[in-house]
Amino acid sequence: MKVAAASGFGIAIVILVVYSLREKPLIRKHMAMMMGKREHSVAEQKIEELISSRRYIYKDIKRMTNSFQEKLGQGGYGYVYKGKLRDGQLVAVKLLKNLKGDGEEFINEVASISRTSHVNVVSLLGFCFEGSKRALVYEFMANGSLEKFIFKSNISEANHQLSWETLYNISLGIAQGLEYLHRGCNARILHFDIKPHNILLDRNYCPKISDFGLAKICPREESTVSMLGARGTAGYIAPELVIRGIGGVSHKSDVYSYGMMVMEMVSGRKNTEVEVDHTSEIYFPHWIHRRLGLQEELGLHGITNGEDKGIAKKMIIISLWCIQIDPRDRPAVTQVMEMLKGSVEALPIPPKPTLSSPSSKFPNCSFSVLS
Fold first, then answer.
1. Residue-wise pLDDT tens digits, 144-203
2. Within a 10 A sphere around the Cβ of 301, how many other Cβ atoms?
3. Is 193 a catalytic residue?
4. According to the UniProt record, where is the region Disordered (predicted)?
5. CATH of domain 147-346
6. Residue 94 marked ligand-binding
7. Contact 254, 322 (CB under 8 A)
8. Is pTM, for the whole model, over 0.85?
9. In the chain, N or C terminus with fewer CB closer than 10 Å?
10. Distance between CA atoms of 39 and 158, rounded to whole angstroms?
11. Yes or no: domain 54-139 corresponds to CATH 3.20.20.150
12. pLDDT per residue as tens digits for the range 305-343
């Protein structure tokens, strides 16, 4: 009897092992589904805890966009569609795609922007989180993104070149929005993706910072933040985010991106484009820095009077300070605002922004770059 019982028990073990091997894919699939549901519920809980914006169901998103009829733009994140709320208010609906894991970028954007309220930061009116369907509902910006108005390849009769006074006001407005994110919120918000595409303009060309998918929220008292990997867009990303030993990652990383963007606003082309008239240098910041140092004409389009020339020179000098390689040599956004509002004659020309540039401070100025 004992032998028979032992034999029966052994057979049962064998059957169980064989069954588990045969059904392993099913078990694995079932576990994956359970993990997916768990990740979704955790993400949903995070969002519910973080924001007070209105939540829409996917059916509402389809209705307000008339089944996604009018596309305003697109990017790696997905698509943006024009929509209308029941009260007639126009909105921009950002429909996200290819979200990984629990949708970290979606959570970042909702968590960051729901904490803000500023004239130079785009307003989040609502969101949709329904299974894999996720969308953000923003206030509608009639003039779209800044890049349509500054790059020569994008400028048409519909998107005319902006005046130097308008470019100045836009650069000041963006600085005010960044200063609010860095100093005006309960927690400091680092954007990490400041570029022309992410600056939206209303009908009066008032700029608003958008796209907080790469943003990081940190305590205001922290001077630097830890990062697991680089964040940002090539051409605007601060060097300390990709090269070790330059300096800590901080609000100065946004200042660098801001400086690169302002440089493009002045030049009307991307900084890395291999097209510069009458020079062999292909990097516009170096080319324009040399012209300033030699007190040569800036060679920029659209300058018709002394006031335009002063605005252009001021924006160039400020942007060159902002893109200094060592973050300690860059001004904080508060100092950027002071420089924009001050006299161009009071601004010293910074060192050429290269890895070999000596560290420098503003000489005989009321504001310091070390902040």
1. 999 999 987 666 545 568 999 999 999 999 999 999 999 998 889 999 999 999 999 999
2. 8
3. yes
4. 350-371
5. 1.10.510.10
6. yes
7. no
8. no
9. N
10. 45
11. no
12. 999 999 999 999 999 999 999 999 999 999 999 999 999
